[in-house]
Design goal:
Blueprint: H1 7-27, H2 44-54, H3 62-81, H4 94-99, H5 101-108, E1 113-114, H6 121-129, H7 134-141, H8 149-167, E2 179-180
Parallel strand pairs: 1-2
């Protein structure tokens, strides 16, 4: 894992993400919670505040920049976990497409994943487990602990979704290739 240049600057981010997981745990009356990719959205206000302090008068707006920073950070780490994922952006990503064929096909068939913020751990696992080939792709990609498996499954979906929507090369972006993730 990479170290931040100024770890104290990222404490606000970690606090926001962990707080989101703890809140979900309390709301769903569970004894434990795992951090999810969707929990990163809880850090947007903290990131926006940091951006406003540093980049006053930014044209795009702080929230747009915060979302972009999260996407770029996730994308920059993807190749460390998922070998060949960066090849999806090349003109003929045949080998990379083979690796993720089952997942892509599942979405092309019109399936979708709804990862709601307040899903219980059981619902979250059930929803991710519906995606054909996802668990296998994660297990083949990197040696991870059982506790991290769901997080990495969600992470791979986000990477594939952002790759598909930014370049449209996964046989176009399948209509069902969406991840619903919001707070109530």
């Amino acid at each position: 894992m990479r170290k931040a240049a100024y770890p104290q600057d990222w404490l606000f981010l970690l606090t926001s993400v962990v707080s989101a997981a703890e809140l979900r745990m309390l709301q769903s009356h569970e004894s434990k919670a795992s951090v999810r990719i969707g929990d990163l959205m809880a850090a947007i206000p903290a990131i926006v505040g940091k951006i406003e302090m540093v980049y006053e008068g930014e044209q795009e707006g702080a929230e747009v920049v915060a979302h972009k920073l999260i996407r770029l950070a996730m994308k920059s780490m993807a190749t460390e976990y998922f070998n060949g994922i960066d090849q999806l952006q090349r003109k003929s990503p045949v080998e990379a497409k083979k690796k993720y064929k089952d997942i892509i096909s599942w979405f092309e068939e019109g399936n979708a994943v709804d990862l709601f913020y307040n899903n219980t751990e059981v619902q979250y696992k059930k929803e991710l487990s519906r995606v054909q080939g996802l668990k296998e792709a994660v297990q083949d990609a990197v040696k991870i602990s059982k506790e991290s498996e769901l997080l990495m499954m969600e992470y791979l979906l986000y990477i594939l979704l952002n790759t598909a929507s930014s370049i449209g090369k996964l046989s176009e972006v399948p209509a069902g290739f969406r991840i619903t993730c919001f707070r109530h």
